[in-house]
Amino acid sequence: MDQPGSAGAAVRDGLRLAIGTFSVIPVRVPEINRRTAAVAMTAAPAVGVALGGVIAALAIGGRAVDAPALLTGLVCVGAAAALTRGLHLDGLADTVDALGSYRDADRALAIMKSPEVGPFGVVAIVLVLGIQATGIAALFGHPWWAVLCGIAAAYGTGRLAVSWACRRGIPAARPDGLGAMVAGSVGVPSLVLATLLIAALAGPADPDRWWHGPLAVLAGLGAAIALTAHAVRRFGGITGDVLGAGVELATTIFFIGLAIGS
């Protein structure tokens, strides 16, 4: 058995932390520190792919029983929210409300911590869920394996955005909280490898154009990286809410990119 503080224990606890953070599955993590946080943020895309596989199974099942495509898409995004406790949607709403306030960093961070959801946040959630549902529905004309790869890659891209937001050199906006624990914890080699794997997974999402899916991955990731850069300028660094917003933005942009021209 791995001893507390060992490399094996850090990997084990980091994987548990990734599952507990990015899904509704209750997982006990014996020790949370920078090493386990680094493992968790590095493993985030894998959890996203697994979640996407579950959502893809729902989509394929809905198509099998001739359910309307958009209805199935809405069921799928609802299931995804339930399987993640709506955590990333909450982060999206808080981040958009803070950015839309045009307040200074301290006041914007205070808005982000408020339990209330403002009009910007509500609109952002409605748009994101609607676009994601429509994106899933747009895949219904493809073979089942393309649907599986497309949806799995979409949710993998969302969590890949978290890994990139936690790369070396990105500071935390606060001295405490999730952002402080994970900021700057992920190395570039791991990010490059994860990006290549998610892009390869997205390749079969469009049977006619192998490059379409990988391009959608890069588009989603690029949008999330831009959001992170803006958050660093506005807030002084990242927070847990900014990470959640990046998840939803990257997933949404992926679906838009894949739907265009499909």
Defining traits:
single chain, 262 residues, mainly alpha, 11 helices
By secondary-structure content and strand pairing, the structural class works out as mainly alpha
Radius of gyration: 18 Å
Number of domains: 1
Determine the fraction of residues in helical runs and give it as a percent range. Answer: over 70%
Number of contiguous helices: 11
Q: Would you give an account of this structure?
A:
With 262 residues, the protein is mainly α. It has one domain. Helices cover 74% and strands 0% of the residues. It is built from 11 helices and no strands. The chain has helices at 7-22, 34-64, 69-83, 87-101, 105-113, 119-138, 144-165, 177-182, 188-202, 212-235, 240-259. Helix 1 (7-22) packs across helix 2, helix 4 (87-101) packs across helix 6 (119-138) and helix 9 (188-202) packs antiparallel against helix 10. It is globular, with a radius of gyration of 18 Å. The N and C termini lie far apart (50 Å). 50% of the residues are buried. The mean pLDDT is 92.
Chart the SSEs and their pairings.
Layout: H1 7-22, H2 34-64, H3 69-83, H4 87-101, H5 105-113, H6 119-138, H7 144-165, H8 177-182, H9 188-202, H10 212-235, H11 240-259
Helix pairs in contact: 1-2, 2-3, 2-7, 3-6, 4-5, 4-6, 4-11, 6-11, 7-9, 7-10, 7-11, 9-10, 10-11
